[in-house]
Amino acid sequence: IDDEKYFKYLRGFGFGNSTSLTLPGETAGKLRKPTEWSKVSKAYLSFGYEISVTPIQILSGYCALINGGVLYEPQLIHRQVSFDGELVKEFKPKEIRRVISTETSDIMRTLLGGVVENGTGKKAFSELISVGGKTGTSQKLVDGTYSKQHYNSSFVGFFPVENPQVVCLILLNSPDLGKYGGLV
């Protein structure tokens, strides 16, 4: 994949952009333009280095990956209800753009289900419901250098695989026991 197309997909999933939630302290993250990439940037970007993203960006992009390929504006409130139980206002999802095809999204759900069934996400397996997800382990940036002692360990999971209804991000900052997302 050429640099411009790769960059387009990264931006398409919402990386390097604010989410419109206007949360205090929210940032757009960091995604450099292809003209600023080195010869190894694309490889490093593919597993999460040379980019910084917020948890909301991760979840929004992940939802687009598994929901059929559409990036939606994240929302914090589904509906507002009065004290007596009457609906005051309902907030409808706002589509931003299609990032990938429905077919590609279907393939990704199957692959992510395999991560939990047979891969690094086995600890998230359930006999009761099909779970998909991806583990993550990243060295923390300490004083401008990637640390060999401090890590972020993560898991982004969803269920059911066939028709995702719940998505969750678990992120541990420098866990005491272990470092790998699948273990922690």
Describe the protein.
- By secondary structure, the chain is α+β, with helices and mostly antiparallel strands.
- It is 24% helix and 28% strand.
- The protein is built from four helices and nine strands; from the N terminus they run H-E-H-E-H-E-E-E-E-H-E-E-E.
- The chain has helices spanning 3-12, 41-46, 55-66, 102-118, and strands spanning 30-31, 51-52, 70-72, 79-81, 87-90, 95-98, 132-142, 145-159, 166-173.
- The strands form four sheets. It has a three-stranded antiparallel beta sheet with strand order 7-8-9. The protein has a two-stranded antiparallel ribbon with strand order 1-2. It has a two-stranded antiparallel ribbon with strand order 3-6.
- Strand 7 and strand 8 (145-159) form a beta hairpin.
- It is globular.
- 23% of the residues are buried.
- The mean pLDDT is 94.
Helix and strand topology:
Layout: H1 3-12, E1 30-31, H2 41-46, E2 51-52, H3 55-66, E3 70-72, E4 79-81, E5 87-90, E6 95-98, H4 102-118, E7 132-142, E8 145-159, E9 166-173
Antiparallel strand pairs: 1-2, 3-6, 4-5, 7-8, 8-9
